[in-house]
Structures are given as structure tokens and as C-alpha cells.
Specification:
By secondary structure, the protein is α+β, with helices and mostly antiparallel strands. It folds into two domains: 55-271 and 290-298, no CATH class; 307-551, no CATH class. It has 13 helices and 29 strands. β24 (502-506) and β25 (510-516) form a beta hairpin. α1 (2-26) packs across α2 (40-50). The longest helix is centred in the N-terminal third of the chain and has 25 residues, at 2-26. It is elongated, with a radius of gyration of 30 Å. The two termini are 45 Å apart.
């Protein structure tokens, strides 16, 4: 008995020590030890714990030369948490890690102005050289691909942006724009914000010393002198561009953060100064090096690509992809559950277990629309597909050739075949997978709400879809929120007072007449235009062989 008590005590001590170790890893303010490249399990635990970090916590992730001593290897990179609201943690390097020019080769063109982030040298260097040096394979797996917004329409203070930064980009590593630095670190007070300031690493400082012309702006621009208390800090690039063009003299500018935390709008040297002397076609160029504070996004947790749950109710369940479902955007998106409709040796057909969204079948009025040209099809294969699935998941999804049959009750015209990655179910597939009696459905040429009923077909909306249904349709009868669209065309004729342009839908049975989604006249008067929004239950075919390759 004493031995058992002693063993239990030892186990408790071990658990406490393990917990303290995990806390010490996350709190890098007090831990000086490097993360072992060999201890992947410890690193995974550490990275999972990073997801619980608070704003402005400091963590370590990746390695890069910082102390200027190449003999002792690379040093852990220290980062500051600047956002932790979604599936990933957004990190800004604590120190300026290197110095590079924004661009290295441009053509002077007074019509186009400065080059932009999309085409810049610094973007290429961060996503190739820096990315491959700084992160090992486990760390690369945890890095998110960020949607980097570069147009004028984005951000919280962009009214003074004179030039576009190019198209939106997808980057693993980038630098903050003017809007983002204010969003995540706060606005300036009296033109300054001490949260903006940063120091060089010794390696970055020594790199800058090799080229005297790259010295601090204040050294050669006498109009601005720094308070000596900021001497230990340095300048670094901001993603947003600026541009100045004068006669025979072109000076291209980008925004920077100065040593004292000033977000410079104009007047700071960009990446090139080119002069063209009268009568001489020669041009001279100087590309200025400035500091780089990278930004990365770490996934809070790496999930299995797909998770099986066998034998639940009438269908097996799998999870794949993420979509907002609990209507709480602060905790990120939730994993989607799918029911398995069909499975063979090579592929598997999945249908969302719940109604994920409330959407229009068509976004136009007074025009006959089928699945082929519907806005719902465009949404499924573009916005939904790109939002829900990451790159590992997208490779699993098979383009599927679909035949959408005519309506046997209302004799609509059978439409052309389509090829889709994401689609919705047709009435023939409802009959096949949900044991619905076709003859009973079309009895008397109309939809019978009373019989037959298919419990297998019934579902419910997620909290997000339900909330959207209430807002969009202003419905007091929430039973309609369980209706979801089918691919097939419904009744497309006219009745007194109404004009139909309809698609079939289902709840616990198939409605061949469909829903009116273009109601625009009552008693001959134009009084309303409303495209009805009903449930969206997507379907996908996935490649089982590719899934096995990914998981292995």
C-alpha cells in the first residue's frame, strides 16, 4: 500500500514538472534554452501551446543568424504575438533580423510609378531564402499561407495611400503595411508609437555597416534628428509604397518606421534613385538597404486531413475542411462533418451533415437560371471551396462530371453536363441514397408534404446558417431553415400574381415544384424583388488513394 502511495506521489510530481516545462517553453521571456531540432515531440507540444498565447507574449519559432558568430550556428528567432483571434497566431519578429533593399532592379517609368509588394525583391527573398533558412520541415508544416491584402480598399487608414501595392498575394512570410501596423500595434501619439520601435540583431547591424550609404536616414538628412534615447533602435521597411517624380530625376520611396517609432509618410529613401542627365541616356541607381521585421502566421494545431467516425446513425461520418458554424467568430472556424453517401476502393462521396449556409440559388431577377449558370454553383466552386479547404485538402477533391436531369413532374429541359469540385445533390441522388419512393413523390403531379417522409434526408442548420436565415429572410417560421437546395430546375411557368424562376429543394422529401426565388409582382403591380435564400449542403468526391498517400 505504501509503495502504491509512493508511486502515485512520484506520478503527481512528474505531471507537475511536465506542466511547468511546457509553461517555460511558451514563456520565452524567462527561458533562454533553444528548441532542440531533434526533439520533435517536445516541439509539437510547444507549438500547440503557442495557440494559447496572449497578445504581445513573446515566443520562439525558427532559427536565423543573429549574433554574428557563424561558428555557433543559428539562433532561435523571437516573435511577438500581435493577433490570436482565428485559427492561427500572427507573429511579428521582435528584432530586425536582416537588412535588404525593397527592390534591386526597376525600370524608370513616370507613368507607372514605384514597383509594388507583389513584384518586389523583398517579398521574393522572404518567401524563398529566408523561409528555407529559418524553418525546418515541422515548422514549415505549421506555417499558414496568409492572404496579404494590397489594394487601396483594404485596411483601416488608407485614404492617403497614393499607389496600389499590386494584386493581393498569398505569402508564408511578409512585412506589415501601414494599415496593419496601426491595426495590430495601435496608432501614433504625437506622430510616434514606441511599440513600433525595434533594434537590429548584431548580424543585421554588421550587414548594414558594410555599406555606408545605407546608414540611418537622420545621419544624412539634417532636417530630422533623433532623441539620443532612440540610438539603440533602427529603421525598417513597411509594405506600403510611396513615389516622388521630378524633372529628369526619379526618386522612388516606400514607407518605413523610423528609429523613434515614427511611421514616415514621405521623404524617406525607398529603393532606387535614378538620374538622367540632359542629353545623356545613362542612368545611375542606388538601392538602399533597410531593416526587415518578418511577419508569419502559425496554425494553432495541425489536424489530421480527415477523421472517420464509423457506424453513426445511417451513415459513417468524416471530418474535412473548416467553416464557421457556431456563429462565434472569435474562436475560429469549426471542422465540417460529412456523411458518407458512397464509397469504393478509389473514391468516396461526401455530403455535409448539416446545412452550412443560407444562400440564393440565383442572384439575378426575371431570368431563367439552371445549375449550369447559377450563382450558387459559382459560390460552391470558388468562394466556398477556397475558404473551406487548405492545400492538403484541395488535392483530395476530385473534379466531378455531373448530369442534372429534367424535372419529371413539370417537364423542364435537361441541361448540359457540368464539371464541379463542389456541388449540391439532385433529386435522383436523393432517391438513390435516402430511400425515397419516387412514385409516391410524383403522385398526382404535386409535392405531398405529408408523405412519404425520409428521416435520413432530414437535417438542421448550423447556428451560423440559422442566424443568417433569420436575418436574410426575416422568417418567423424557422422550419424553412431546414430546407436546402437541389440542383434540378423546378416549375418555371407563371401563375396569376407570381412569376416563377425556381429550383427544387428538399427537407424530408423532394419538392419538385421548387421554391419561388423571383417574386416581383402582385396583382400586376411591381412591389417586391426578393431572391429567396435556402440551405446549402455541399457534396464532394474525394480520392481515397491520395488521402492514404498524404497520411503516410
Amino acid at each position: 500500500m505504501k509503495n502504491q502511495s509512493k508511486l502515485s506521489f512520484i506520478k503527481c510530481i512528474a505531471m507537475v514538472l511536465s506542466f511547468l516545462l511546457l509553461i517555460s517553453l511558451v514563456s520565452c521571456k524567462t527561458s533562454e534554452s533553444n528548441l532542440s531540432d531533434d526533439d520533435n515531440e517536445s516541439k509539437k507540444e510547444y507549438l500547440d501551446a503557442v495557440g494559447k498565447s496572449a497578445l504581445f507574449d513573446e515566443i520562439r519559432f525558427g532559427r536565423y543568424e543573429q549574433d554574428g558568430n557563424y561558428d555557433n550556428g543559428l539562433e532561435d528567432i523571437e516573435w511577438i504575438v500581435i493577433d490570436n483571434e482565428n485559427d492561427s497566431v500572427l507573429l511579428l519578429s521582435k528584432y530586425i533580423l536582416d537588412v535588404k533593399p525593397y527592390e534591386v532592379d526597376i525600370e524608370v517609368d513616370d507613368d507607372k510609378g514605384a514597383y509594388n509588394w507583389e513584384k518586389s525583391y523583398i517579398r521574393k527573398w522572404l518567401n524563398e531564402d529566408f523561409y528555407n533558412i529559418a524553418f525546418d520541415e515541422l515548422e514549415k508544416e505549421r506555417l499558414s499561407i496568409s492572404e496579404v491584402k494590397n489594394g487601396k480598399v483594404y485596411g483601416i487608414n488608407n485614404s492617403n495611400e497614393p499607389f496600389e501595392m499590386g494584386s493581393d498575394t498569398k505569402d508564408r512570410v511578409y512585412i506589415l503595411s501601414k494599415d496593419e501596423i496601426r491595426k495590430y500595434l495601435g496608432y501614433e501619439f504625437n506622430g510616434m508609437n514606441e511599440r513600433y520601435i525595434a533594434s537590429y540583431t548584431k548580424f543585421a547591424s554588421e550587414s548594414l555597416d558594410k555599406n555606408p550609404i545605407d546608414k540611418d536616414f537622420a545621419i544624412w538628412n539634417k532636417e530630422r534628428d533623433y532623441d539620443p534615447k532612440f540610438n539603440s533602435y533602427a529603421e525598417y521597411w513597411v509594405r506600403s509604397p510611396e513615389n516622388v517624380v521630378t524633372i529628369n530625376d526619379y526618386e522612388y520611396l516606400a514607407l518605413m518606421v523610423s528609429k523613434d517609432g515614427h511611421l514616415a509618410n514621405r521623404g524617406f529613401p525607398y529603393y532606387v534613385h535614378k538620374s538622367v542627365e540632359d542629353g545623356d541616356d545613362k542612368e545611375s541607381a542606388q538601392y538602399y538597404n533597410r531593416g526587415i521585421r518578418p511577419v508569419i502566421s502559425i496554425k494553432k494545431q495541425i489536424d489530421d486531413v480527415i477523421v472517420y467516425k464509423e457506424g453513426e446513425s445511417d451513415f459513417d461520418i468524416v471530418t474535412l475542411g473548416r467553416f464557421e458554424q457556431d456563429n462565434d467568430r472569435t474562436n475560429g472556424k469549426e471542422k465540417i462533418e460529412w456523411i458518407v453517401l458512397e464509397k469504393d476502393d478509389d473514391k468516396m462521396l461526401l455530403m455535409s451533415r448539416y446545412i452550412l449556409d443560407e444562400v440564393e440559388y440565383s442572384n439575378v431577377y426575371d431570368k431563367r437560371v439552371t445549375w449550369f449558370n447559377s450563382s450558387l454553383r459559382a459560390y460552391a466552386n470558388n468562394e466556398f471551396y477556397n475558404e473551406v479547404f487548405d492545400e492538403r485538402e484541395k488535392v483530395l477533391i476530385l473534379p466531378t462530371k455531373l448530369k442534372t436531369y429534367d424535372n419529371p413532374v413539370y417537364n423542364s429541359i435537361e441541361e448540359s453536363e457540368t464539371v464541379d469540385k463542389v456541388f449540391i445533390i439532385g433529386f435522383d441522388e436523393c432517391m438513390k441514397y435516402f430511400d425515397i419512393d419516387y412514385d409516391e413523390c410524383i403522385k398526382d403531379g404535386r409535392y405531398d408534404y405529408n408523405k412519404p417522409k425520409s428521416q435520413k434526408l432530414m437535417t438542421s442548420p448550423t447556428a451560423y446558417a440559422k442566424s443568417k436565415f433569420e436575418h436574410e429572410n426575416n422568417k418567423s417560421d424557422m422550419s424553412y431553415s431546414s430546407d436546402f437546395w437541389l440542383r434540378n430546375e423546378g416549375y418555371s411557368g407563371e401563375e396569376p400574381g407570381y412569376k416563377y424562376n425556381s429550383a427544387m429543394y428538399a427537407r424530408d422529401n423532394v419538392n419538385f415544384k421548387g421554391a419561388i426565388y423571383d417574386l416581383y409582382t402582385i396583382n400586376g403591380d411591381s412591389v417586391m424583388k426578393q431572391n429567396l435564400k435556402l440551405g446549402f449542403r455541399p457534396l464532394i468526391w474525394i480520392d481515397i488513394n491520395l488521402l492514404l498517400d498524404i497520411e503516410n
